[in-house]
Amino acid sequence: MEIKILGTSCSKCKELEKITREIVAENNINATVIKIDDIMDIMKYGVLSFPALVINDKIEVKGRVPSANEIKEILSTYY
């Protein structure tokens, strides 16, 4: 599974990355977490609200930081 966090260096973007990495580690999820902050790369996804959570190139959340439980639920649909 490939998880991408789209966003700049804003506090919400950093928070989403931190929570996501913790969930992946704590639950032994076989996934790669990548932070994408290059605006040209982000624009390829058509995302205008940050942060965004992308899993296997599907936008799951954008414009907010989901709760840890919500992230777990989203990830569980991929394994």
Task: Describe the structure in your own words.
The chain is an alpha+beta fold and 79 residues long. It has a single domain, classed as Glutaredoxin, CATH 3.40.30. A 4-stranded mixed beta sheet has the order 2-1-3-4. β3 and β4 form a beta hairpin. It is globular. The mean pLDDT is 96.
CATH homology superfamily name: Glutaredoxin
Radius of gyration: 11 Å
Instruction: Give the overall shape.
Output: globular
The description of the largest β-sheet is: 4 strands, mixed
What is the number of independent domains?
A: 1
Order of helices and strands: EHEHEEH
Keywords for this structure?
79 residues, alpha+beta, Glutaredoxin, 4-stranded mixed beta sheet, 4 strands, 38% helix, 24% strand
How are the secondary structure elements laid out?
Elements: E1 2-6, H1 11-26, E2 32-36, H2 39-43, E3 52-55, E4 58-62, H3 68-76
Parallel strand pairs: 1-2
Antiparallel strand pairs: 1-3, 3-4
Q: TL;DR?
A:
With 79 residues, this protein is α+β, with helices and mostly antiparallel strands. Helices cover 38% and strands 24% of the residues. It has a single domain (2-76), classed as Glutaredoxin.
